[in-house]
């Protein structure tokens, strides 16, 4: 026989799956001997059965009534007993806390008779009628489905009629009248009377709490918090205690330390002569918890004692709900409390110092997401007004700047020392210079993995994307929101953590944690706590952390942030800007000599880039990827060119020969699916001289650094391999160039040659590929794209939100690695690669390298390192440490 009900005296904190968080913790407090009003918990399993069958689980009623009998015996009163009623609360409580999402019904057991008994036994008529009207209100809305606003309106009208400022201004007669109004309201709205039978009230309340699991707001909350829909809620049935019995009663919430800063010392709010729901509802102003010490020193000192007990027992910050009934303290709830990022680090350090937890446990209690939050400057939220628009918080932080509407303008103004916000419908690689120049990027289209979002996150730049309410007009150099128009140059404040845009310059608060990563300066207790967590993580992690960096500046920053090398140096960024002309010349070359001349012109520039990066990363590995994107990405846009030529023709001027040639090339090279076209290793194999030029630049840079007394450690990485044959051919060319340069210079240049694993075929034939590859680096962006068959640039806007809504996946596979599919391919590749080449080095260089959850998977999969953007390096270090515990 399944058992559906447990008394508080039977449960414990590790039964949260079955009893829900609230029930498990009520049981734990009971076991600790704290004053908890007695009660019992109906299990989540009963709820699941109810939700799947639609009916009350067999035997549940019986179990509830048995447990009720035990409560009644102990109390010496029966539920709803007319002369002296036992009253109950019926409280929801799921495995994971879902604050305010589901329902609680207080004062079960009151009816037209027992309300009179309660008045007599308590000695307060006002209290009895107040309790009855609360029951009608909660039961009426939660169980019987009456719109709760109707009750609130009736109450407000009554207060107005009586001239009462708040609910304390209503006397017993007023409240008795209100009870009649409420009963009538229920009858009108439902065609049914409020059930007078206490047993029936209890039964219906329990089922209503089950049902509240599936109300719309609870579903939405679960989706946002990634809580599975199938868990169900437990129901706690508990003896009522009363905070509304007069001035020596009251209710409050408390924390064992400050949940905002983490600093030690009790912290909370108290409301005299009130039930707990009033504290959070904000119907009257609460007083700070210390006031309770003045009003009732004994209850206050007991409370402080219980809080100390709880913190020592849970070994963590606890939050608490309590009620004082005529001077006597009752504990109604506790749990390990939610906290800010700042508090998380501070508490972990302090509890470690106090010896309550180990350094390992301290590390587990902080997270990479929290760390990231601490590194961004923030707006001082106390002083900003309403936002102009909302979008998706794509890349956190706070930035202020003048609105500009194209990349060139952003660059121009930034060069003149102005701070700008680049506003676009969406961004493309052409906007890159403007994005670099801007403080923040704001787009009206695209999701969390749109170009703007990904690039901005990579650069640690603030970004709000998909702000659909704004209409961007790049020609007119303005955007509109409703009837507001924002012209170019207007100052905006962009909050990438909240996804909001404000007019004007909101004041910023700097991040001391960021300063610590930049300079090592430990300016306050929080920074010290962060530094300690980082040190511990570095001490325990097995996974190396490298950075994706394409410039000496990024490389130097990554190094300051603790990167142990570069895992991905993209060479395509080196083909942009002024060098475009040279790249064009190479593409348009008609003869070998023309092509060689173009490549020769590019060589010294590339060499210079590599020299700078190798210098910044001296002594550490720098993995350089050979050119990856299709060549036509470096040519002008097809339509743009055609328009330019047509315009010239219309004006009667001769068409530019260069433009005509370009258009010809663009047309010739056009691909329907460039991401699956002529790119990566394929390009290297068909564009003569390209690989040789890049490898020569790397080799000569190595020689230069060596001669300067440095320790350059370049590694050459070949992108988009499908088969070992491709790698074999490229590698021959690479080795030849390395040998040539060694001979010419007299300096022996040896660079490991490895490959990206970013196509399913490569992963599945990794054993063969490892014969030629000296290392693997998983390009998880492309691997995700090709494994799922998702075009990263298209799927987001097209249907990802629908897929998330339908629960097809809980998080975009471009954000967090898909363990089952993409992850499986990686595991196969690691195993077969290492079997073929023992000790084969494996790393990850996709966006996932800086994603906390993915880092844990990479650790478990046995990779050697992750590589991520410089700004994510501390996050990856921290998570790699946590993963190792
Ligand atoms: P939530 O999960 O939304 O916090 P609770 O189950 O904690 O809901 O109930 C809300 C409030 O109802 C509590 O904060 C408490 O003040 C009050 N309450 C619940 N059970 C009792 C009880 N047995 N006696 C007195 N007040 C109670
Ligand atoms: Mg509560
Ligand atoms: Mg790739």
TrEMBL record:
Enzyme class: transferase
Residues of the PEP-utilising enzyme mobile domain: 418-499
Gene3D superfamilies, alphabetized: 1.20.80.30, ATP-grasp fold, A domain (3.30.1490.20), ATP-grasp fold, B domain (3.30.470.20), Phosphoenolpyruvate-binding domains (3.20.20.60), Phosphohistidine domain (3.50.30.10), Pyruvate Phosphate Dikinase, domain 2 (1.10.189.10)
Family affiliation: Belongs to the PEP-utilizing enzyme family.
Bilayer-spanning residue ranges: none
Keywords: ATP-binding, Kinase, Magnesium, Metal-binding, Nucleotide-binding, Pyruvate, Transferase
This protein's name: Pyruvate, phosphate dikinase
GO MF terms held by the record: pyruvate, phosphate dikinase activity
Listed EC numbers: 2.7.9.1
InterPro entries tied to this protein: ATP_grasp_subdomain_1, PEP-util_enz_mobile_dom, PEP_util_AS, PEP_util_C, Phosphohistidine_dom_sf, PPDK_AMP/ATP-bd, Pyruvate_phosphate_dikinase, Pyrv/PenolPyrv_kinase-like_dom
Alphabetized NCBIfam families for the sequence: PRK05878.1, pyru_phos_dikin
Cofactor entry: Mg(2+)
């Amino acid at each position: 026989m399944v058992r559906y009900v447990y008394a508080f005296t039977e449960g414990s904190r590790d039964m949260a799956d079955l009893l829900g968080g609230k029930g498990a913790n009520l049981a734990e407090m009971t076991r600790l001997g704290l004053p908890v009003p007695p009660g019992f918990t109906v299990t989540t399993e009963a709820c699941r059965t109810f939700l799947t069958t639609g009916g009350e689980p067999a035997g549940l009623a019986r179990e509830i009534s048995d447990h009720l009998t035990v409560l009644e015996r102990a109390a010496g009163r029966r539920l709803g007993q007319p002369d002296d009623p036992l009253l109950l609360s019926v409280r929801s409580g799921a495995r994971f806390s879902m604050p305010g999402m589901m329902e609680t019904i207080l004062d079960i057991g009151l009816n037209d008779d027992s309300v009179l008994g309660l008045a007599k036994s308590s000695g307060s008529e006002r209290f009895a009628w107040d309790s009855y009207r609360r029951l009608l209100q909660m039961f009426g809305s939660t169980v019987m489905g009456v719109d709760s606003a109707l009750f609130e309106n009736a109450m407000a009208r009554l207060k107005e009629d009586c001239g009462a400022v708040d609910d304390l201004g209503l006397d017993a007669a007023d409240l008795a009248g209100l009870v009649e109004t409420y009963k009538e309201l229920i009858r009108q709205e439902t065609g049914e009377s409020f059930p007078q039978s206490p047993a029936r009230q209890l039964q219906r309340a329990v089922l209503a709490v089950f049902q509240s699991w599936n109300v719309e707001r609870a579903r939405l909350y679960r989706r946002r918090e990634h809580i599975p829909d199938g868990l169900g809620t437990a129901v706690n049935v508990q003896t009522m205690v009363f905070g509304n019995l007069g001035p020596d009663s009251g209710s409050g919430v408390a924390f064992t330390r400050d949940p905002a800063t983490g600093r030690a010392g009790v912290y909370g709010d108290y409301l005299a002569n009130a039930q707990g729901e009033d504290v959070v509802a904000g119907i009257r102003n609460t007083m700070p918890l210390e006031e309770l010490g003045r009003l009732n020193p004994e209850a206050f000192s007991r409370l402080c004692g219980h809080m100390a007990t709880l913190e020592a027992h849970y070994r963590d910050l606890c939050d608490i709900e309590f009620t004082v009934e005529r001077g006597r303290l009752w504990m109604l709830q506790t749990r390990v409390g939610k906290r800010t990022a700042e508090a998380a680090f501070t508490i972990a350090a302090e509890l470690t110092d106090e010896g309550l937890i180990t350094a390992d446990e301290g590390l587990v209690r902080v997270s990479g997401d929290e760390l990231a939050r601490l590194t961004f400057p923030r707006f001082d939220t106390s002083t900003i007004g309403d936002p102009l628009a909302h979008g998706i918080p794509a890349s956190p932080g706070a930035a202020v700047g003048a609105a500009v509407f194209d990349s060139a303008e952003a660059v121009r103004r930034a060069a003149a020392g102005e701070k700008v916000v680049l506003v676009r419908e969406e961004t493309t690689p052409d906007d890159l210079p403007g994005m670099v120049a801007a403080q923040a990027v704001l787009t009206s289209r695209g999701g969390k993995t749109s170009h703007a979002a990904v690039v901005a996150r990579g650069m640690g730049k603030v970004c709000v994307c998909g702000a659909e309410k704004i209409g961007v007009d790049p020609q007119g150099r303005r955007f509109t929101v409703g009837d507001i128009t924002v012209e170019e140059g207007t100052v905006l404040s962009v909050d990438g953590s909240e996804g909001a845009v404000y007019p004007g310059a909101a004041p910023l608060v700097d991040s001391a944690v960021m300063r610590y990563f930049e300079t090592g300066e430990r300016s306050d207790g929080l920074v010290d706590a962060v530094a300690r967590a980082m040190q511990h993580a570095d001490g325990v992690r097995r996974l190396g952390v490298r950075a994706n960096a394409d410039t000496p500046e990024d490389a130097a920053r990554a190094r300051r942030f603790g990167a142990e090398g570069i895992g991905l140096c993209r060479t395509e960024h080196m083909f942009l800007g002024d060098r475009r002309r040279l790249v064009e010349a190479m593409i348009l070359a008609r003869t070998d000599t023309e092509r060689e001349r173009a490549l020769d012109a590019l060589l010294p520039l590339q060499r210079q880039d590599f020299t700078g990066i190798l210098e910044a990363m001296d002594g550490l590995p720098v993995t350089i990827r050979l050119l990856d994107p299709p060549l036509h990405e470096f040519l002008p846009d097809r339509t743009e060119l055609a328009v330019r030529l047509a315009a010239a023709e219309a004006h009667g001027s001769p068409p530019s020969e260069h433009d005509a040639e370009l258009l010809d090339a663009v047309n010739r090279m056009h691909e329907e699916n460039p991401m699956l076209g002529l790119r990566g290793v394929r390009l290297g194999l068909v564009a003569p001289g390209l690989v040789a030029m890049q490898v020569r630049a790397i080799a000569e840079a190595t020689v230069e650094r060596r001669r300067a007394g440095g320790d350059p450690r370049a590694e050459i990485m070949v992108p988009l391999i499908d088969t070992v044959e491709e790698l074999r051919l490229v590698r021959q060319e690479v080795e030849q160039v390395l040998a040539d340069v060694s001979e010419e210079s007299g300096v022996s240049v040896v660079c490991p040659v490895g490959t990206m694993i970013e196509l399913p075929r490569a992963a599945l034939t990794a054993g063969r590929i490892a014969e030629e590859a000296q290392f693997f680096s998983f390009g998880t962006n492309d691997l995700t794209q090709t494994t799922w068959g998702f075009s990263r640039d298209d799927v987001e806007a097209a249907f990802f939100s629908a897929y998330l809504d339908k629960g097809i996946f809980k998080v975009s596979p471009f954000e967090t690695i898909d363990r089952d599919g993409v992850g499986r391919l990686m595991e196969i590749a690691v195993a077969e690669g290492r079997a073929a080449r023992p000790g084969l080095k494996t790393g990850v260089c996709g966006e996932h390298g800086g994603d906390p959850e993915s880092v844990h998977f990479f650790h478990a999969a046995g990779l050697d390192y992750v590589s991520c953007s410089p700004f994510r390096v501390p996050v990856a270090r921290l998570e790699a440490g946590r993963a190792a515990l």
